[in-house]
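Lab notebook, bench 4. We co-purified these components, and the gel suggests they stay together. Before we commit to crystallization screens, I want a quick structural picture of the whole thing.
Request: model the full complex, all chains together.
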Amino acid sequence: MTLSTADLRQKFKDYFQSHGHQPVASSSLVPADDPTLLFTNAGMNQFKDTFLGAEKRSYTRAVSSQRCVRAGGKHNDLENVGYTARHHTFFEMLGNFSFGDYFKKEAIEFAWNFLTKEIGLPKEKLLVTVYSEDEEAFDIWENHIGVPKEKIIRISTSDNFWSMGDTGPCGPCSEIFYDHGAHIWGGPPGTPEEDGDRFIEIWNLVFMQYNKQADGTMEALPKPSIDTGMGLERISAILQNVHSNYEIDLFQNLIQAAATIVGSEDLENKSLRVIADHIRSCSFLICDGVMPSNEGRGYVLRRIIRRAVRHGYQLGASDIFFYKLASALSKEMGEAYPELVDQLPVVEKVLRVEEEQFSKTLARGMAMLNDTLETLEGDTIPGDVVFKLYDTYGFPTDLTNDVAREHDLKIDVEGFESAMQAQRARAQQASNFGADYNNTLTIDHATSFTGYSDVEGEANIV
Ligand code: ATP
Ligand code: MG
Ligand code: MG
Ligand code: MG
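Here is the predicted assembly.
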């Protein structure tokens, strides 16, 4: 079966709706009332209080397609983008949920039936994992569903035991993997080769059945619940008979648009994939009200934009380009997310201002970095170079690290930190003398960029 990504999203919702699930709209990427979470990173986020019993809803089954960003915090896939076939900074998570309604057996049945009957995946290409102590799940997969024993892999690590926090609801998971074939490197979960992309995890089923107490004991929840998450782009790749998420319809269109804009002909180029990925996270974050800034969420956004701009430079883009891709994205996803169309002028403006700012220093920073690379001895870019790139040219350290990685090099993080400390000490000394020029200097190095003054002011939208 070949389905467009948009049709697949709809099919998932229809299937679960026909089984009594209430369709619930995706929540914002900026989590409501949850300062512990940088960005919404899973479908269950918006139901946290419902799972905890603090919020009652008029339904006990729900289905959603949740926009997610994993580019910081506990889940950070930024470094995977461009390197694996399956990771994005922004993706959509399809999920079905039971709030004290059905449990393990039905959740497994729903998932299996959706995959093998509804969208017709061949059973023999699927394998599953269970938490090593979860005999119940093993038994359901083996005896109820009929998955051969050797395709049910027991995993003892926390990968297969989910918890909301140090205390509270938690429980074992069962993940469903798809085998893309022996021609692709990688091994099944639990093997040393599992880092590869041959076996790709498509769906995670979480069985919330305990309430973890402060002393570590596990109390059985009176009404166990279900939380599941399946990556839309991953399942789409399978249905479109391609291996990488970046080969699906949606991404191919974005990659083509990016190639046209920067004047590149090499559609396989990794930088195009990174740019296509980044335009999604950046546009959606701006639509959800995040503005580039020097700290917190805004700084993550700024870092992603700068990475994208650097990749464009790498491809030889002769002018600012990134903002032009926002309209291609709104064409691609605007039907499902009308805000991409409504807010297009805002998104374009924010991106353009950011890009213009960074372009002023990018070429000079890259020239300095390239000089360093040419004369470098050893495999580490010195901390003072990383610091100068950061401080003078606006290169976030992850961007420098991205370049380093392309040359099989590392960056000297410790050296960078001590250069940072030294600058702080100087700033402190200066302020002791009553100088006030540091007013615009943010010195929280974890989330700050100190190269320009008042960039935020310029990013204001009219
Ligand atoms: P992986 O092990 O491949 O990194 P995960 O175990 O971190 O995935 P979960 O937290 O279980 O992922 O999220 C549920 C589902 O969301 C995954 O099974 C996958 O299909 C999808 N998913 C997770 N992270 C990403 C990502 N960065 N890009 C695209 N899809 C993702
Ligand atoms: Mg992951
Ligand atoms: Mg996983
Ligand atoms: Mg998982």
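Residues 435-462 have pLDDT under 50 and may be disordered. Worth comparing against the SEC data before the next meeting. The first helix runs from residue 5 to 17.
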